[in-house]
Structure to design on (532 residues):
C-alpha cells in the first residue's frame, strides 16, 4: 500500500508526541514504546491489529531499554513508528520488520544527540530570566523553544521516511529476493535475545536467576502464556519474600 | 520601629497549601524533560517546577531571582522516584521564606546528595523492573493481534508511574531530609527491588521461551537413518534450547563489557550467514 501525505503527517506526529513533553510525563512510558506507537501507526494506516502485532514484536528488542543519565542505547520510538509504518506499507512479516527497525532505531540516537546539545542553549537564555526573577520567562524557556526545536527534528525526518521509505525498502527486497527476506526473519527471531539480555543485566542476580529458568520452563514445557507466568510469578515472589524474612527471624 | 516590622513578618507565616504542592508537581511531571540537555540535564525542568512555590513564598524580585538561580543548578535524577528531592526542597524553601537560616549551599547539597542515590533506585524500579514486566505482559497479549495488549499496558503503567511520582513528592515534603535518609537506610526500597527482580526474572524467562526464536534445519545422516537435529533432538529434549543458549550467550557478552551495538552486528551476521548456508 501507499502511505498518503495525511497519514505520513500523523505518523510524524506520533513520533513527535512520543518524544515531546505533553503527555504529562508518561509519554516516555507509553507513546515512546513500540507496543503503543505501533498500535497508533496501525490505526493511522487502517490496520490497528497488524500494527499492534508488529509493534509488540519490535518492542521485544527494547524490553531492557534503560535511559540513564541522558545516555540512549538506540531509539525505540523511532524503531516502533517507522518500523511499523514500513512493515505495514511494504507487507513484510513482523520478524523481518524487527530486523529492519533496529538499525532505524540506531539512527534515532542522532536526533537525541541534537536535542541534548541544542537544549543547553535555551538554559543559558533561562539564566537571564532568572536574573530578573521572571518566573514566566523560566516557564517559557522550558517549554516553547525546546519543543519547537524538537518538533522540527522529530516530525520532518519521520514524515519523509514514512512517505518514501516503504517504496525504497520494498524495491530493495524485491531486488534482493526471498533469501534476504528469510534472513531478516531469522535475524528478527534472534534479536529479542539482545533486548532480553540487556534487561537481565539489571536483574539477573543471586537467587533471581532460578526464577528466570522457571519462567522459561513454564512456557516451553507447559506452554503457559505470559500472563499466567506473571500471575504465578507474583504468588511465588510473595512466598519467597515471606520465607526469606521468616528465615532470618529464626536465625536471630 | 524596625522591631515592629520584623514581628509583623513573623506573624504572617508563609504557609504552602496542598494546592501549591500539586501545581508544582504537575509542572515537574509534565515538563521535567522538556529542555533536557547535556550541560545541566533537568535543571530548567526543576526550576520551572519550583515557579509556583517561588511565586507564593517570595514577594521581592531579588528573592525570586536568587531562588530561580539556586534551582537552575545542575540537576539529574530519576523523574518519578526522585520527586522526594522536590518535596524536601520545597519544605526547605518554605522554612527559608519564614526566616530560618538556610543557605543556598544547604539546599543545593541536599538536592545533589539525594538525586544520585534516588536516581539509582528509581532507574532500577521504574525502568529496570516495572516497565519490562508490564511490557512483557502487554506484548504477550498483543503479539497475536489483541488490541487489549497496548491498551492494558498504557493504563497500568500510567497509573503506577503517576502514583509513585505523586506519593513520593508529598512524602518528601512531609518527612523532610533526615526522614528520607532514614528510609533509604532501612532498605524498604531494597525489598521492593528484590521482589520486583524475582517477578521480573520469571516473566523475562517466559519471554525467552516464547519469543526468542531460533531453530536449526541441519539433518544428520546416521547410517541408514536420518536425524533432524531440531525435530528429533532439541524438540524432544528441550524445545527452546537454542533460544535459551543464545540469550544466555548474549548476556555473557554483555557482562564481559561488549557493547550492545557490536552484539547486534554479530547477530545480524550470524543470522544472515546461517540462513544463507541453511543452518537455520
Amino acid at each position: 500500500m501507499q502511505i498518503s501525505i495525511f497519514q505520513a503527517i500523523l505518523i510524524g506526529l506520533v513520533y513527535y508526541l512520543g518524544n515531546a513533553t505533553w503527555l504529562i510525563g508518561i509519554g516516555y512510558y507509553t507513546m515512546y514504546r513500540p507496543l503503543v506507537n505501533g498500535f497508533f501507526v496501525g490505526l493511522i494506516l487502517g490496520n490497528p491489529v497488524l500494527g499492534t502485532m508488529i509493534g509488540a514484536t519490535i518492542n521485544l528488542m527494547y524490553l531492557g531499554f534503560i535511559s540513564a543519565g541522558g545516555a540512549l542505547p538506540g531509539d525505540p520510538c523511532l524503531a516502533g513508528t517507522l518500523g511499523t509504518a514500513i512493515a505495514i506499507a511494504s507487507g513484510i512479516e513482523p520478524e523481518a520488520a524487527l530486523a529492519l527497525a533496529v538499525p532505524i532505531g540506531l539512527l534515532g540516537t542522532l536526533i537525541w544527540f541534537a536535542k541534548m546539545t541544542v537544549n543547553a542553549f535555551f538554559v543559558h537564555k533561562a539564566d537571564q530570566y532568572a536574573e530578573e526573577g521572571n518566573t514566566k520567562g523560566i516557564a517559557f524557556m522550558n517549554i516553547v523553544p525546546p519543543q519547537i526545536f524538537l518538533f522540527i527534528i522529530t516530525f520532518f525526518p519521520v514524515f519523509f521516511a514514512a512517505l518514501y521509505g516503504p517504496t525504497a525498502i520494498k524495491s530493495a527486497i524485491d531486488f534482493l529476493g526471498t533469501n534476504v527476506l528469510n534472513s531478516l526473519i531469522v535475524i528478527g527471531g534472534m534479536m529479542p535475545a539482545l533486548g532480553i539480555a540487556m534487561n537481565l543485566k539489571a536483574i539477573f542476580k543471586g537467587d533471581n536467576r532460578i526464577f528466570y529458568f522457571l519462567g522459561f520452563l513454564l512456557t516451553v514445557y507447559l506452554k503457559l502464556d505470559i500472563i499466567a507466568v506473571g500471575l504465578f510469578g507474583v504468588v511465588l515472589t510473595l512466598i519467597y519474600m515471606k520465607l526469606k524474612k521468616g528465615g532470618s527471624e529464626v536465625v536471630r | 520601629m524596625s522591631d515592629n516590622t520584623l514581628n509583623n513578618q513573623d506573624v504572617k507565616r508563609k504557609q504552602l497549601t496542598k494546592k501549591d504542592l500539586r501545581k508544582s508537581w504537575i509542572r515537574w511531571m509534565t515538563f521535567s524533560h522538556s529542555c533536557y540537555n547535556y550541560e545541566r540535564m533537568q535543571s530548567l525542568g526543576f526550576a520551572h517546577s519550583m515557579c509556583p512555590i517561588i511565586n507564593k513564598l517570595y514577594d521581592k524580585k531579588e528573592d525570586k531571582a536568587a531562588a530561580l538561580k539556586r534551582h537552575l543548578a545542575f540537576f539529574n535524577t530519576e523523574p518519578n522516584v526522585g520527586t522526594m528531592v522536590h518535596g524536601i526542597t520545597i519544605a526547605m524553601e518554605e522554612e527559608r521564606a519564614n526566616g530560618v537560616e538556610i543557605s543556598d549551599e544547604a539546599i543545593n547539597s541536599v538536592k545533589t546528595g539525594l538525586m544520585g542515590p534516588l536516581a539509582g533506585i528509581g532507574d532500577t524500579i521504574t525502568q529496570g523492573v516495572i516497565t519490562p514486566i508490564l511490557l512483557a505482559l502487554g506484548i504477550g497479549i498483543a503479539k497475536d493481534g489483541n488490541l487489549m495488549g497496548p491498551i492494558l499496558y498504557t493504563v497500568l503503567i500510567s497509573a503506577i508511574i503517576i502514583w509513585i511520582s505523586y506519593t513520593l513528592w508529598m512524602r518528601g515534603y512531609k518527612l523532610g531530609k533526615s526522614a528520607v535518609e532514614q528510609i533509604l537506610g532501612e532498605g524498604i526500597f531494597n525489598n521492593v527491588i528484590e521482589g520486583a527482580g524475582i517477578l521480573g526474572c520469571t516473566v523475562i524467562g517466559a519471554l525467552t521461551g516464547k519469543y526468542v526464536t531460533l531453530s536449526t534445519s541441519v539433518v544428520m545422516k546416521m547410517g541408514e537413518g536420518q536425524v533432524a537435529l531440531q525435530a528429533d533432538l532439541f524438540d524432544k529434549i528441550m524445545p527452546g534450547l537454542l533460544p535459551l543458549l543464545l540469550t544466555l550467550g548474549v548476556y555473557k557478552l554483555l557482562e564481559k563489557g561488549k557493547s550492545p551495538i557490536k552484539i547486534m552486528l554479530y547477530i545480524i551476521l550470524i543470522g544472515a550467514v546461517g540462513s544463507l548456508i541453511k543452518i537455520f
